[in-house]
């Protein structure tokens, strides 16, 4: 876990975190909700490098910070990458090796590179519905 320049990482209660987990936060908070399971080799961040000046190395370019939040009771599959600015609602499932960026509502199943939601649980019917 890494924090830089007033970054903070907040991890809720009763979380399970696998081996080789890497999380980094700068200039803001990164939140992982209660009862969330994070498998091994997962990367989570709230930082991006800008790439505006083509002749300048990326590491020398300004950083961009975006709120990253993982809701309660989520499952993050092995090798997934949760990119800056991602917001997962409660009870989301992220598939193995998914590269996730964006906002996903509660009860979403998110897979792929780039990741997209493929199913969502309907609380009224009690069924998983394809999107």
Automatic annotation (TrEMBL):
Pfam families per record: Hexapep, Hexapep_2
GO molecular function: acyltransferase activity
Keyword DNA damage: no
UniProt keyword list: Acyltransferase, Transferase
Superkingdom assignment: Bacteria
PANTHER family in the record: LIPOPOLYSACCHARIDE BIOSYNTHESIS O-ACETYL TRANSFERASE WBBJ-RELATED, SIALIC ACID SYNTHASE-RELATED
Protein name in UniProt: Sugar O-acyltransferase
Native source species: Streptococcus suis
Biological classification of the source: Bacteria, Bacillati, Bacillota, Bacilli, Lactobacillales
């Amino acid at each position: 876990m890494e924090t830089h320049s007033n970054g903070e990482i907040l991890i809720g209660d009763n979380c399970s975190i696998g081996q080789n987990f890497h999380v980094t936060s700068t200039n803001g908070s990164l939140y992982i909700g209660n009862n969330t399971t994070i498998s091994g080799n997962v990367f989570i961040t709230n930082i991006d490098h800008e790439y505006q000046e083509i002749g300048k190395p990326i590491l020398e370019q300004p950083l961009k910070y975006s709120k990253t939040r993982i809701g309660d009771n989520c499952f993050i599959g092995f090798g997934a990458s949760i990119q800056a600015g991602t917001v997962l609602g409660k009870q989301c499932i992220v598939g193995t090796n998914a590269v996730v960026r964006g906002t996903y509502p509660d009860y979403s199943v998110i897979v792929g590179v780039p990741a997209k939601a493929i199913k969502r649980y309907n609380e009224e019917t009690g069924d998983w519905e394809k999107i």
